[in-house]
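Hi R.,

Here's the chain you asked about this morning:
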Amino acid sequence: MSGTLADAKAAMAAEEGKLKKFLKAVKKFMAKEFLWVLFALILAAPMAFIFKYLLDELASGVTIEYICEMLGEIPLFMGCYMVSIAGIYFARATQGAIKTLVSKK
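And here is the predicted structure, written out as tokens:
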């Protein structure tokens, strides 16, 4: 009976080690994602200013009115900001997909 108990304790210790390893990987992933979100939020502001400037300078009044109509009550700058954040995340996702496909294990 004690042999079975020792086997069960060893199995539990092994499972506990797997759980600790998994939780450590999740913590690392969450920290990395938090830094990417912070990076995207900071980098998106100057990109939105540039995007809005280009819209004001190069787009016709009809185009800007159409964009503002689509945004509704949201200011044009905030729309540019959201597009910038989406663009940064799309580029990051694309880069990650390419890295995953290219890397050999």
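One quick note: The two ends are 43 Å apart (CA to CA).

Cheers,
M.
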